[in-house]
Write a structure and sequence with these properties.
It is built from 14 helices and 15 strands. It has 391 residues and is of the alpha/beta class. A seven-stranded mixed sheet has the order 2-8-7-6-5-3-4, with helices on both faces. A four-stranded antiparallel sheet has the order 11-12-15-14, with helices on one face. The structure holds pyridoxal-5'-phosphate.
């Protein structure tokens, strides 16, 4: 891959879609930089054209991806299961721990279905009692809300690091400490924080951290990971196993699973996909992780300042960087968000709505966006607010 460094114009050159539109939906699907895509396509072609001959080299690249991912979040490679998405990681925990009826799990009221569905399902299957705390912009209030729900039966607290609809950054280090103080485990969903904020799972103190490679990292779609503290990874019982899960197997002595995250990885897979996570990590290494984070901070702050100054526009994301991330959500009260989205798209601006009737739009500020795109978006919103509503 050619050397990049964080030169905005050169970075933007690596994302050709930006010549057609301002892409503001990294929080849903990331887009891949051209050098990463070139390597990824080569990996697919190698495997599809040459089959078994390439499987050894692809497996070495998968292991290299695992090592780099682990190092990026200060984990050991054995503590990483490579998954298909962030949701997989939540499911591995929800279905991999053993539960007794009446065990309690606490999650937030701003969870993506990635978190809320697996826990609701586990509640229905295992008799877990699921409680929800209200996310507040003020981290102390979120912590108080959790504290009020903890009982002697609380087994786990699960929360997004950065919430999906409003981009609120939760005080995850304190939440993990609170869980541990009450003998519970802590699961953090980093789908909206990994590759934006620095992640150090030891410093955070989480037991489990789930993330993906296909949003902010711009890796292949269908890539994710679950970090589980070493001794917990060994305790997680996969619902499915197969060739590759085993440490040892015989019908006489039984099946012993690998003590690492590899127990979840079995059977023939699209090996070129996880093998190519390393390419996306390399792209980020070249640009500089801190520089990327600083760039996203700058863009999100730039946008929030301008949106907040528009009459009739209400920010749904905290203005402070320490309480937020790359997502910026806003509401135009009394106005139809689909209509605003249509006007934005007519101007080649592609954020997303937060659903019919929500009156809200979510803008993902990614490493490749720039101020002129944000100015165009703000101008479009200003015009929209200034025009009478259509009947
Ligand atoms: C907080 C959060 N968690 C999980 C997900 C889903 O991630 P995945 O599709 O990788 O499972 C999203 C996607 O929008 C999200 O915002």
């Amino acid at each position: 891959m050619p050397r990049a460094g964080f030169d905005v114009a050169r970075v933007r050159d690596a994302y050709p879609i930006l010549r057609e539109m301002a892409y503001f939906n990294t929080g849903t699907y990331g887009i891949m930089a051209e050098p990463v895509l070139a390597g990824y396509l080569q990996n697919i072609a190698r495997f599809e054209r040459r089959g078994m001959v390439e499987s050894g080299s692809l497996h070495r690249e998968i292991e290299a991806s695992r090592e780099r991912l682990a190092a990026r979040i200060n984990a050991q490679p054995e503590e990483i299961a490579l998954t298909g998405n962030a949701t997989d990681g939540v499911t591995y925990v929800a279905e991999g721990l053993s539960w007794s009826p009446g065990d309690e799990v606490i999650i937030s009221d701003q969870e993506h279905p990635a978190m809320s569905y697996p826990w609701q399902y586990a509640a229905q299957r295992h008799g877990i009692i699921l409680r929800r705390f209200a996310v507040d912009w003020d981290p102390r209030k979120s912590l108080e809300a959790i504290r009020a729900l903890i009982t002697p039966r609380t087994r786990l607290i699960g929360t997004s690091h950065v919430t999906s609809p409003y981009g609120v950054r939760l005080p995850v280090k304190e939440i993990c400490a609170l869980a541990h103080a009450h003998g519970a485990l802590a699961l953090v969903d980093g789908a909206q924080s990994f590759a934006v904020l620095p992640i150090d799972v030891r410093e955070m103190g989480c037991d489990f951290f789930t993330g993906n490679g296909h949003k902010w990292l711009g890796g292949p779609k269908g890539t994710g990971f679950l970090y589980a503290r070493r001794e917990l990874m060994e305790r997680l019982q996969p619902a499915y196993v197969g060739a590759g899960s085993e440490q040892s197997f015989s019908f006489e002595t039984g099946l012993v699973l690998k003590p690492s995250g590899r127990r979840f990885e079995f059977g023939t897979r699209g090996f070129a996909v996880p093998a190519s996570i390393g390419l996306a990590l390399e792209w980020f290494d070249q640009l500089g992780w801190e520089a990327i984070s600083a760039r996203i901070q700058h863009l999100a702050t730039y946008l929030k300042e301008r949106l907040a100054a528009l009459p009739g526009v209400e920010l749904c994301t905290p203005p402070e960087w320490e309480r937020s991330s790359g997502l910026v959500s806003f509401r135009v009260a009394g106005r139809n968000e689909q209509e605003l989205q249509r006007q934005l798209e007519a101007d080649h601006l592609y954020p997303r709505t937060l659903g019919p009737g929500s009156e809200k739009i979510r803008v993902s500020c990614a490493l490749f966006n720039d101020e002129s795109e944000l100015d165009r978006l703000v101008e479009c919103v200003r015009r929209f607010v200034g025009t009478p509503r259509s009947r």
